[in-house]
């Protein structure tokens, strides 16, 4: 059974995540306020960031950087700037 939430990223009702994908309070906030669609968008951006900046997810600084970017993207409406990446023209 899917659950509907008001997605802070999309600013509309949308299908919520099936379970908490991120630990702690932030994970709870994501679970309650971010839709599957928005999370999928973040996953694409995160992959690009990891590749572009050659992040090592074993490194606490890399994880901290990604978490900061994730909060800015999902909750503050900030787009992630990927150097050397030009989004396809609409």
Structure, explained:
One of its GO terms (cellular component) is cytosol. Could be a mediator in iron transactions between iron acquisition and iron-requiring processes, such as synthesis and/or repair of Fe-S clusters in biosynthetic enzymes. Necessary to maintain high levels of aconitase under oxidative stress. Pfam families: Iron_traffic. It comes from Pseudidiomarina aestuarii. By secondary structure, the chain is mainly alpha-helical. The protein has a single domain (4-75), classed as Orthogonal Bundle (YggX-like). It is built from three helices and two strands, in the order E-E-H-H-H. Strands 1-2 form a two-stranded antiparallel sheet. Strand 1 (4-7) and strand 2 (12-15) form a beta hairpin. Helix 2 (36-53) packs across helix 3 (60-75). The model has no long low-confidence stretch (mean pLDDT 92).
């Amino acid at each position: 059974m899917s659950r509907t939430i008001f997605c802070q990223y999309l600013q509309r009702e949308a299908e919520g995540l099936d379970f908490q994908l991120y630990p702690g309070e932030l994970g709870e906030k994501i679970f309650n306020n971010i839709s599957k669609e928005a999370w999928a968008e973040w996953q694409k951006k995160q992959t690009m960031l990891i590749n572009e900046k050659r992040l090592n997810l074993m490194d606490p600084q890399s994880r901290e950087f990604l978490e900061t970017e994730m909060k800015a993207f999902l909750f503050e409406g900030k787009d992630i700037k990927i150097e050397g990446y030009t989004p396809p023209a609409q």
